[in-house]
Amino acid sequence: MLSQDLNSKKFAFSQIASGVLYNTGSKLIRQQTDILKTYYNRQTGATLANLSSQPFSVVASSQRVTLLIKYLSSIRFLDLKKTSKGKNKKVYQPIYNKPLYGFIYGYAYSRLRYGFTQSVTEATIDPLKIVMKKPIEL
Predict the structure, then answer these.
(1) Torsion angle (degrees, nearest 10) of CA 33, 102, 12, 54
(2) Ordered alpha helix ranges (H), 1-108
(3) How far apart are CA 11 and CA 18, in angstroms?
């Protein structure tokens, strides 16, 4: 009985966490694509093609849920404030570090930490309320 209860809790957590991480990945990629189109339009299309292909996946196992993002290595260098010769860039908009960590800590972490209890309540209590309202047929 106890192991079945633990398995159902793990299953509920993995489903909710998968949904939160999928939303995090899609919003992050959408924001980075918008930044790339607006501020870095003179770059080659390889980075834009990579971001447009939705390079993320959510992997759920029995123990953990993981968000995997496969970036081209060039996207990390777009975030540098200076050119290769040491001059400040005329147009600078953070595309990698700030959005990435902002979404992970600001969006996903807060949703998992505080929104999880509300989601579990909705996922478990609401179906029980519906069942309890139905008359029992003998």
Answers:
(1) 10
(2) 2-39, 45-52, 74-77, 97-101
(3) 10
| Residue 46 to residue 26: CA distance in whole angstroms | 19
User: pTM for the whole thing?
Assistant: 0.69
Question: How do the domains of the chain map onto residue ranges?
Answer: 2-121
DSSP 12-32: HHHHHHHHHHHHHHHHHHHHH
Cβ–Cβ < 8 Å for 102, 28: no
Using the CB atoms, write b or e for 61-89: b if 16+ within 10 Å: eeeebebeeebeeebeebeeeeeeeeeee
The length of the chain is: 138
Q: What does each of the 138 residues of the chain score in pLDDT, given as a tens digit?
A: 444 545 666 777 788 888 888 988 899 889 888 888 887 776 667 888 888 888 898 988 777 888 888 888 777 777 777 666 777 777 777 788 788 888 777 888 888 777 667 666 666 676 667 766 766 555
* Spatial separation of the C-alpha atoms in residues 51 and 105, rounded to whole Å: 21
